[in-house]
């Protein structure tokens, strides 16, 4: 083949045999290029030049060439014919230009803010990793840390180097739930592998907090380090500098923590159902820790509550029994769990709890929606129907309280619903409510249910989605401060995040020690390290925000908060599956109707 190339960028000659071949190396390069395009969110299809055969036809049209020659000869015969010659040549040029295809570059899809923010929100979990970091951690200012902990690994909860297992377990449960409902959306956003990796890092650690490999356990770790440890809240120090051993706090009676841990492991076992060995390991651990939580008595449990905590106190455990039992049923299909979660006695015990606000402490709204899903998508009938209906009535009341006409919750002038009644750190509750509302709306859409009755007034299911959208839009920057409360998203976001690792300069070989880091906390300059994706505590009831590192109520992120954010973002994302809805069946992978 000749080395000549034409104006189209390819050889003029055509090799028929080569023309039809696809080489493995070319395929790999094209796949890598496609992945990079999608990762950037551009999804631009490359312009395919016309084939060599077509180009040669354009260059070799005999009728046009003959006309061109005769016209040239004609022009040489007589100057009188100059005008005719020019007209003829112009016509030929116009004909060629008409035959030439005009390239109109395809318009690149415009990704919505929820899809754009999703990978950032997940990246926050990378920044919170403890222990020996994997090569794909992708947070340049983080390194291996706390390698002498009693249990190595897991996630730091917020701005310091403490690992609280109660909210961490809740965070993993929420992430798993979002994957089970919106698996295809994660895949479309190229974040499915990332979120599953995030969940596994968390569940691997939870399995270390009790004797998950045995048939029973007598204790579970609640936090690390214990409150008496030197580096606990007395130092402002990068976790990478902590070299001393850190013991954990353990409890022998902690039904809420244990049941939440069971929920996290059970939910994750469904996420990883295609990894049979790991899924079975998770289910076994979930069974062990749930029996430890309830002492094998279920709704007849008469033991004590969880011991008090300085930060994450549980206000009760019956909601965790309901939440954990529901996930155990979904993960195993064991009818004993179904009997527990539909028992009138348990329904009565959780019925008196506050209902509306899903959080690391209150699981009733989440459990009620899951039980409503059982009723909506599966036909259980007697004797389960009445209790399942009660829980659907509860979730109806809960989402109705989020709508603008409800008087249960006030809103700021900027439109943020005050689910914690004006107290600090409101956003962690808002994102959970947004997720619940959008998910319930999608349940209705999947079953062609038009809407919901709230206090005698009918609301279309879109009203729930509108609520979720306006609340998350507020968090992403549509607020009086015109500030995104997700770090690294938008043009303006918090710069003095309350976070030890992000606030202290990461310099190779440089250590500041326990006391040397306080100067970094107290200085009024942006953090030297940007903790991308962290959702901070949020504004006050007047929509005001104080970007001050020392004020954790405004500027500290948390695992529980970001898990709700991730769930809400993927639920609202639109550049995904054709029907843009939920995965109907995966959550029921192990369920068999009684």
From TrEMBL:
UniProt keyword annotations, A-Z: Carbohydrate metabolism, Cellulose degradation, Glycosidase, Hydrolase, Polysaccharide degradation
Residues at the active site: 547, 556
GO biological process: cellulose catabolic process
EC code(s) of this entry: 3.2.1.4
Molecular function terms, GO-annotated: cellulase activity
InterPro entries linked to this entry: 6-hairpin_glycosidase_sf, 6hp_glycosidase-like_sf, Glyco_hydro_9, Glyco_hydro_9_Asp/Glu_AS
Acidic residues bias (residue ranges): 24-33
Reactions catalysed, as given in the entry: Endohydrolysis of (1->4)-beta-D-glucosidic linkages in cellulose, lichenin and cereal beta-D-glucans
PROSITE patterns tied to this protein: GH9_3 (PS00698)
Enzyme class name: hydrolase
Family named by the database record: Belongs to the glycosyl hydrolase 9 (cellulase E) family.
Protein name according to UniProt: Endoglucanase
